[in-house]
Amino acid sequence: MADKARIVVVGGGVAGIEVATGLGRDGRAEVVLADRSLSHVWKPMLHTFAAGTARPDRQKVDYFAQAKRNGFRFQPGTLVGLDRQARRIALVVEEAEDRPPISLAYDLLILAIGSRANDFGTPGVAEHCLTIDDLTEAEGFHAALRRHLLRALRDQDGLSVAIVGGGATGVELAAELKHAIDMMAQYGSADLPGRLRLALIESGPRLLPAFPEKVSAAAARTLADLGVEVRVGAMVSAADEAGFDLKEGGRIDATLKVWAAGVKAPDVLATADSLERARTGGLIVGPDLRTTRDPSILALGDCASLTDPVTGRLVPATAQAAHQQARHLVRALRHALANGGLGTPLPPFRYRDRGAIVSLADFNGWGTLGRYTFGGGRLNGLSARLTHDLLYRQHQFGLFGPGLGLATWIADELDRVVSPPVRLD
Ligand SMILES: Cc1cc2nc3c(=O)[nH]c(=O)nc-3n(C[C@H](O)[C@H](O)[C@H](O)COP(=O)(O)OP(=O)(O)OC[C@H]3O[C@@H](n4cnc5c(N)ncnc54)[C@H](O)[C@@H]3O)c2cc1C
Prior knowledge:
The chain is α/β, with parallel strands linked by helices. It has helices spanning 14-26, 46-51, 56-59, 63-70, 125-128, 135-154, 168-185, 192-195, 213-225, 319-338, 381-418, and strands at 6-10, 30-35, 39-40, 61-62, 73-76, 78-83, 88-92, 102-105, 108-111, 159-164, 196-202, 229-232, 236-240, 243-246, 251-253, 256-259, 283-284, 290-291, 294-299, 304-305, 356-360, 364-368, 378-380. Strand 1, helix 1 and strand 2 (30-35) form a beta-alpha-beta unit.
C-alpha cells in the first residue's frame, strides 16, 4: 500500500484543532498537529481567565488526549523555521531550547498560528503592559491582579487598571474585571469595589467599531454605569511604569496596564521563507486557502489574510471566521484525499457573516445577526450572552462529539454550582 500523505497542522487554536481532529478522524492522511502549548483553550474565553471568573483547568483540552481519541499525532513545539524546498518545518521544544530543533517533513503544511495584539511600536508598551493573547498571559495577568488587590487591601489603598483598546476584547475585559471585583467583595472585602479604578482607552471615536453605533453607545453607557472611565478618541503615545501618556496631552495613571488593541500575525511568519504577507504580517491566501506562492502551504484563521472575492473586504480575524475556514478545509481536504490526493484543486471558501456578539459579563450583551441568515436584527442582554456561550459549546461538540460534548457541558454547569463564582486562589 502507498504511504499516506503527511499533513502537518501548526497551531491548535480555534481553527487548527478543528482541522487536525476532522482530518485525523478521516484517516486517509497521516496528520500531525504541532503547538507550542500542551493544551488548547478557546481563545475568546481568555479575558474570563484573566479576570478570574472562569477556571482554565476545567476548559483546557489536552492535545495528547485529543490526538489519541481522533487519530492524529501531537508534536509539542514552537514553529521557528520553514524550508519550503525541503518541505520541512523546524520546531523548538520548551525545556529543550539548547537542543537542535525538531525537523518535521510535510506534504501539506497548514498554518493556523493565530495573532497577537499590536502595539504599533508604541514606546514603553512592550516593557510595561500586559497582554492576554494566550493562556500563560491570561494567567499572568490574573496573578498580577491578585497580587495588587492583596496589596491594596493590606495598605488600605486603591488599585488602578487601564486597558488600551475599545474593541470586543477590551470592552469584555473591563466588564469582566468589574464583575470579578463585585464577586470578590462578597467574600469578605466589601470595600474592594470602591478601591478599583478602571479605565478603558480607545483611539477611535467610539467603542466597538465593528458594531452598529447604537451598540457602541449602549456599551459605553453600561460601562460608565459600572464606574468604568471610558476615554474615546484618546491615542496612547507612550507607556511607562506608572501609566500612559496621551498624544493630545494628558495622562492616565495605572498600576496595571493592559494592551488589547490591534491585531498582528506572529513574528515567526516574517521568516516564513518568502511567502507573501499582508500589512498585518498575515500570510496572503487565495479563496482555496493556499498561500499565493506555495500551493503546498495553506493558512487559515487569524494568521491568514484573505480578501472575500464577493465583498472585496478582508475576512475578519474572529473565532467565527476561523471556525468556518476550518470546517470548509476539512470537507475540502477529505474530498481531495478520496478523489486524487492533495494536489486536487480545492473549492473556494466563502465567508458567511453570522454577526458579532459582545458580552459584558453578567451585566449585558449585544449581538448583530449576519444579514445572510437573519436579516440584520439585534439581540440584547441575556440572549446575546447565551449565543456567545453557544459558540463555545458548538466548538466543544465539534471536538468531542455529542456524548462527550454534552457530558462536558453538564460537568461545567455542576462545577458552577459547587465552586465560587470567582477564583479566590
Ligand atoms: C480576549 C479575547 C476575546 C475574544 N473574543 C472573541 C469573540 O467573542 N468572538 C470571536 O469571534 N472572536 C473573539 N476573539 C478572537 C478569536 O479568539 C480569534 O479570532 C481566534 O482564536 C482565531 O483562531 P486561530 O485558530 O486563528 O488562532 P488561535 O485560536 O489564537 O490559535 C493559535 C494557536 O497557535 C499556537 N501557536 C502560536 N504561535 C505558534 C508557534 N510559533 N508555534 C506553534 N504554535 C503556535 C497557539 O498556542 C494557539 O494554540 C477574541 C480574542 C481574544 C484575545
